[in-house]
Amino acid sequence: LSLSLLNGGDNKIVLCHNRVYEYTDCAEIVSHELIHAFDNCRANLDPKNLTHVACTEVIGSSSLFLDSLSF
Q1: How far is CA 64 from the centre of its chain?
Q2: pTM, entire model
């Protein structure tokens, strides 16, 4: 179930407000989607190319994982 998406054609992030209840959840989702937006600008991602999609998902997920670690 997707709570958000990056609409590349319109250059906007869409959040389903009826599925995001906490500020921290919203912040994490927006941060994740902004990583996709940056990747799209940097590398001109093709959303039909599964390698491109997998790469940006790994980057987005790993950055959120690293943020959650306490050193």
Answers
A1: 10
A2: 0.68
**Three state DSSP letters for 7-26:** ECCCCEEEECCCCCCCHHHH
Say which DSSP state 40 is in.
H
Is-catalytic flag, 33?
Answer: yes
Q: Which of 22, 28, 33, 57 is catalytic?
A: 33
pLDDT tens, residue by residue, 11-59: 677 777 777 788 888 888 888 888 888 888 888 788 888 998 888 888 8
Instruction: Give the length of the chain.
Output: 71
Cα separation of 56 and 43, whole Å? 10
